[in-house]
Amino acid sequence: MKNEEPRHFLLIAGRGSLPKLVYEELVSCGDNVEITFLPGSEHDDLTTRHTKINPDNFLDLLQKYRGMGVEHVVLAGGVDRPNQTSILFKHGETNNQINIMGGDDSILKQFITVIEEIGFKIWGVHQVIPQLINHNGVLTDRSPSSADKSDIIFAEEIVTSIGNADIGQAAVVRNNRCIAVETISTDWMLDSIKDVYSTFANNPDERGGILIKASKPNQDLRVDLPTIGPNTIQRVVSLGMSGLVIESGKVILIDLPKVIQMANQSGIFIWSKSINRNIREKYS
Amino acid sequence: MKNEEPRHFLLIAGRGSLPKLVYEELVSCGDNVEITFLPGSEHDDLTTRHTKINPDNFLDLLQKYRGMGVEHVVLAGGVDRPNQTSILFKHGETNNQINIMGGDDSILKQFITVIEEIGFKIWGVHQVIPQLINHNGVLTDRSPSSADKSDIIFAEEIVTSIGNADIGQAAVVRNNRCIAVETISTDWMLDSIKDVYSTFANNPDERGGILIKASKPNQDLRVDLPTIGPNTIQRVVSLGMSGLVIESGKVILIDLPKVIQMANQSGIFIWSKSINRNIREKYS
Quick check: B231 and B187 in contact, CB under 8 A? Predict the structure, then answer.
């Protein structure tokens, strides 16, 4: 649907399929879109009008776009954490330093501050394409069992605890036991428990456990929304898990029709639900 | 040092070197010691007077020892989690079921309840051999740097959060970022981040990060005290980490002289300190 007044966007693109989805949505709305790519994130299918960002030109580049009349910025796609402990953004005579130590939230807040200080309005992917997060209820043929629901109650406590502490946004729970907590990435976490799950497989009576993925309790939704897509579903299936819980309205679901189809073919459930943020005081 | 009045102990032995240490300490005090071994925990060096526990004879065995005048029970050594979801302890005409679903605390509390109901007094390893947990301060030639101390502040929050949620007792923090959280075991956690650490190694300026190991807040210290020994030190060293923080008075340190020697030879620090249990409200 075309906007009456075209907006002028800068798309800061990371890895994965989100940047292309955002680009196509904005273009179809009649907006003007400039693109810059974060290091390691060049897209073959987004070849026009792009400039690669590096620490030496980042601030100058943003100022240039602002001078061209760009008013809006959207960050989309996965970002590899820089290996340095800090990044010095050079601009004219001044420098602007982002401290890379700390959790993802800490880094992204500094990043957003730099962009907003230049005068841009920052948009989240979900504000450009609301249907990516508009899911609610059990999305699959299979529903969670009462045993799965017991795991989910514990899992909601875990994502609340680890979200508050800026550790991660996902966990695996099985038989009311926490098997894994996301730190590096969800896919890395799922790969790391292959051996553990293979020991479970010796007992065919055992249920498979659940993956939960949720936003952090007080997260800035404009950046770093947790994202689920076919790659994650494939890992959940190959581990033999029962299913997947995602936070309704706060987790991006990429390629929903394919995700649902994969889940139904494999017999897992996907439940989009609001997360209970109450923590029981277990040991007091 | 001999007790004036010999006590009569049942040692329930798991894996590792703790059961032998406990056995030798009790014998040197002049106490009488019976031994039973949990499945998978036979010790070549503790061959006398032992009976293997299995779910079918566990309650009867405990009753037999109680009838023999055994008054004290000590649980020592690592225990593999049973693969079943519940264990039915058979005793005469009655059954006693322990639900294996849940975190370690939940299982151990049920286990302790069964033993106490029969009339035993339960001892922690640290009550038999207090010197195993009597460590305090920086134990090594190397001290933590100010950057390490910054990681440690975050790490204290993490072990408090994951301890309250009965997730685990250890974590790895590096540059104020949580790299890993213990779920299965500390050694498993350290093995799982080898690949992650090898990517850090490309940048020689990077510090190595710290391992923290602490009891759960409000833990019953008689069972499941976190334990550190040469195996863990060897893993910390081979990953290239800076050092290790353990909770003073609440973490068992096995083979202290060897642990200190290994740490000093490798240039890592070991800091035994009380853990700050305050959680900052980061996102409110």
Answer: yes
- Are B108 and B140 found together in one domain? no
Q: Do the interacting molecules here have an ipTM over 0.95?
A: no
* Torsion angles phi and psi, residue A230, rounded to 5: -55, -35
Looking at the fold, whether A122 and A150 belong to one and the same domain comes out as no
CATH number, position B74:
3.40.50.20
| Tens digit of each residue's pLDDT (9 = 90 or more) over B180-211 | 999 988 999 999 999 888 887 766 556 689 99
Closest-CA distance, A241 to chain B, in angstroms, reads: 16
pLDDT digit string, tens, across residues B218-266? 888 887 789 999 999 999 999 999 999 999 999 999 999 999 999 999 9
Do B112 and B229 lie in a common domain? no
Token representation of residue B128: 């038999």
Q: B178 vs A184: CB contact, 8 Å cut-off?
A: no
Residue B150, number of CB atoms within 10 A of its CB: 17
CATH number where B264 lies: 3.40.140.80
Alpha-carbon distance B87 to nearest alpha carbon in chain A (angstroms): 14
Q: Which domain holds residue A17?
A: 8-130
What's the pLDDT band for A89 if we cut at 50, 70, 90?
A: low
* Residue B119, domain member (yes or no): yes
* CB contact (8 A) between residue A176 and residue B206: no
User: Is B179 in contact with A184 (Cβ distance < 8 A)?
Assistant: yes
Domain boundary among A130, A158, A193: A130
* Tens-place pLDDT, residues B118-154: 899 999 999 999 999 999 999 999 999 999 999 999 9
What percentage of residues in chain B have a pLDDT greater than 90?
Answer: 53
Task: Judge if B204 and B114 occupy the same domain.
Answer: no
A chain contacts of residue B205, beta-carbon cutoff 8 Å: 84-85
Q: How many domains is chain A built from? A: 2
